[in-house]
Amino acid sequence: MAAITLEPPPHAIELKKRSHSYEEALELAGFGPAQYVLTFLSGCCLMAAMNESIVISFVLSAGHCDLGLDARQVGMIGGVIFLGIMLSSFFWGYQADTRGRKTVLQCALFATTACSVASSFATGFTSMAVLRFAAGMCVSASSAIAYTYLGEFCTGQRRGQMVAYAAMMISFGIVYGASISWWILSYDWRVQLTDSFVYRPWRLLFILCTIPGFLVGVAFYCMPESPKFLLSQNRSTEALQVLTKMYQLNNGREKYYEVYELTPEVGVSMTTKKGWDGVRQSLKDQTAPLLERPYLGYFAICCTNCIISFAIYGGFCLWFPQIMNQVLSDTSGKGTVACKVLQGNKSGQTQSDTQCSETIQQETFYYTIVLGFIGMFCSLVLSLVLRRVSSKPVMIFNMAIAGTAGILLQFVTNSYAVAVLFSVEIMFCAMGVTLINASAVSLFPTHVKGMATSLINMTGRFSTFLFSSVVGMLMAQSCHLTFYVLSGLLFLSSALTLLLP
């Protein structure tokens, strides 16, 4: 970004003698178009991460015969992206705290695009699994660092609200992925590229679903680095230039930004380290503060909450289309409780696995799109609430409502009520993930913030990978107990949040 020089107004001469903290400078920069543009782009990063997760479910349903996959291999490929996200979170968190939020986001988005394009040419289990694992490792950054990047451009009063606005794009990613899949998979064309390789519509889904992420990566060339990161790296002049530009965008170029010096954050190391010893020391510096009081307690609570939220949100989301299809088609007159639906779904799935069918029911697309719109509505309501209330009380209420919905599922037999309660439990857990990231941005200092959010999301993604693999077995063997335990964990998450500042 080019240097910005402004002649100070006469009444501002005395202000040169004062150094402003970052939060004070951010408050004086105002709120307006700059934050809205950054919110949209950060939301698109989150959408890109969701696109990679949602597209594989439709690709595997439509292309498992071409790839020669059995049911076990389909499940492994479906979960391997979460394994990639989990294993790379520490790496991306370190890079974000040492090289910059914007730089990491751009590299990750372009790398994700490359992996997705390559995935469209996969020929079997091994190539597809390796490429989806690589995509998961790349998309890990955009699914976590985007929260940090956006949060550092917003004041504490607006931070939670804007993060919630950005999270709307996660649900829009569900709508986008399902809509594009519905459209593309309605065709049955074939392009013979070689004697043994045929390009079919399901392969094109990878490219169409990664385009938004690629475009956001290009757009980031026009965006600034986080001024809070720049300040933490002793680049206060550049940080001040970014804040001045924000002020001009929000208030008009004819006005003058009355901040001329920024106070460095207390406790932030400015030392530049070289070589492998420097890298090891830097890794220690990025991680050690998270293991010290009071951050250790905050980190443990955020990780616990994220594990619970991601497990229920990610695990049940995989079941949602089939659940909606069955509960709304129930004609018994007595209704269907949730456990009966899930147990019936499991037995039906075992039978269908014996045939190689590429047919996807229309209802699957429809109900997935409905879930996405419900998520967008919930995120919108959450953002409006967070404008007036901090994230802590909202998190307490949010997790308690999700836990209550899980308990009510054991007693409600009306088909539509079952569908509504499932939607409430899934989407309130999804909002819990947003609230956890909004809290993390506020709780941890700048020089470890990227590492903290990445590790917190890493634990959550691992719970998604684990729970989605065993949810079918749990529901078949101890369905009611499983729901009660999950509801208990949600109430525990609500109680633990009381311990956060």
From TrEMBL:
SUPFAM superfamilies: MFS general substrate transporter (SSF103473). It is a multi-pass membrane protein. The chain crosses the membrane at residues 36-62, 74-92, 104-123, 129-150, 162-184, 204-223, 295-321, 365-386, 393-412, 418-443. Keywords: Membrane, Transmembrane, Transmembrane helix, Transport. One of its GO terms (cellular component) is membrane. It holds the Pfam family MFS_1. Signal peptide: none annotated. Residues 37-501 form the Major facilitator superfamily (MFS) profile domain. PROSITE patterns: MFS. It is found in: Membrane. InterPro entries: MFS, MFS_dom, MFS_trans_sf. PANTHER family: MAJOR FACILITATOR SUPERFAMILY (MFS) PROFILE DOMAIN-CONTAINING PROTEIN-RELATED, SYNAPTIC VESICLE GLYCOPROTEIN 2. This is Major facilitator superfamily (MFS) profile domain-containing protein. It comes from Culex pipiens pipiens.
